[in-house]
């Protein structure tokens, strides 16, 4: 009898833990897995996978990443500490890396607008939206390939914020079909997902210790790093 492939991909290896102390747990989210339940109840979620792996049914995600975004995610392990954990996250510093089509005009710049949720995407509005602010740094670029490597530091944390902001200035994230710009052409093979990675998380834990977590770049992200040189990663 012919074996049928599973409809959804589940990681073959355990979810990697970057940090665990007190009521906080930081893990590495692989690309392609939603963090929360979707319309399909049979689809695995990162939250469920980590709860089962850690045998902690009360684990709660403190923030979200899009399905195709990889990198660091923070959990709270104790329901009684949820408010304190939320406060730690609110004061944290979150930095992402993105590979973009096109090259920003400035080395360092801020993008801000008001974003409103829509069906499957967000849009910029003059009223009725939520303030969205991201600080960007151009880390390296390739004129030959029309590519750039950008660091994005969140000032606010809206849905699709980094993706929308980069597209709005004419440098969409490579592989992002939702916010792609037809006038911006890719000169390299397209990845299977958009290349956005939650790279760096800094926070002060409950013991007043300064914590810094740095996530390694996934293999699909690394494949494009050969186009860049002289990179000084965020610290």
Summarize the structure.
The protein is mostly beta strands and about 240 residues long.
Molecular structure report:
The chain is mostly beta strands. The chain contains four helices and eleven strands; from the N terminus they run ββαββαβββββαββα. The chain has helices spanning 46-54, 82-90, 161-168, 219-222; strands spanning 17-21, 24-29, 60-61, 70-76, 93-101, 108-117, 122-124, 130-142, 147-154, 196-204, 210-214. Strands 1, 2, 3, 4, 5, 6, 7, 8, 9, 10 and 11 form an eleven-stranded mixed β-sheet that branches. The termini are far apart. The model is unreliable at 1-6 (pLDDT under 50).
Q: How is the secondary structure organized here?
A:
Elements: E1 17-21, E2 24-29, H1 46-54, E3 60-61, E4 70-76, H2 82-90, E5 93-101, E6 108-117, E7 122-124, E8 130-142, E9 147-154, H3 161-168, E10 196-204, E11 210-214, H4 219-222
Parallel strand pairs: 4-10
Antiparallel strand pairs: 1-2, 2-4, 3-4, 5-9, 5-10, 6-7, 6-8, 8-9, 10-11
Regions with pLDDT < 50 over 5+ consecutive residues?
Answer: 1-6
Radius of gyration in whole Å, from Cα? 18 Å
Q: Largest beta sheet, briefly?
A: 11 strands, mixed
Q: Compute the separation of the termini in Å.
A: 53 Å
Overall 3D geometry?
globular
Q: What string, H for helix and E for strand, traces the elements in order? A: EEHEEHEEEEEHEEH
| Average of the residue pLDDT scores | 92
Portion in beta strands: 25-35%
Counted by DSSP, the helix tally is 4
What's the β-strand tally?
A: 11
- Provide the helix percentage: 10-25%
Task: Give me the secondary-structure category.
Answer: mainly beta
């Amino acid at each position: 009898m012919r074996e049928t492939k599973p409809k959804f991909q589940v990681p073959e290896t355990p979810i990697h833990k970057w940090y665990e102390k007190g009521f906080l747990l930081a893990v590495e989210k692989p690309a392609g897995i939603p963090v929360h339940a979707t319309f399909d109840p049979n689809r695995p979620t990162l939250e469920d996978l980590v709860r089962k792996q850690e045998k902690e049914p009360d684990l709660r995600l403190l923030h979200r990443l899009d399905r195709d975004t990889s990198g660091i995610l923070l959990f709270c392990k104790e329901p009684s500490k949820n408010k304190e954990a939320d406060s730690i996250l609110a004061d944290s510093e979150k930095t992402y890396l993105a590979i973009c089509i096109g090259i920003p005009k400035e080395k360092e710049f801020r993008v801000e607008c008001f974003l409103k949720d829509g069906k499957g995407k967000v849009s910029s509005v003059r009223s009725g939206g939520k303030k969205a602010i991201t600080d960007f740094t151009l880390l390296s670029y390739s004129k030959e390939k029309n590519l750039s490597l950008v660091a994005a530091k969140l000032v606010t944390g809206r849905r699709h914020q980094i993706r929308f902001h980069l597209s709005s200035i004419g440098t969409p994230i490579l592989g992002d079909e939702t916010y792609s710009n037809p006038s911006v052409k890719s000169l390299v093979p397209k990845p299977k997902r958009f290349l956005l990675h939650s790279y760096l998380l800094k926070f002060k834990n409950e013991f007043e210790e300064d914590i810094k977590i740095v996530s390694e770049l996934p293999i699909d992200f690394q494949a494009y790093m050969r186009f860049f040189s002289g990179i000084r990663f965020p610290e």
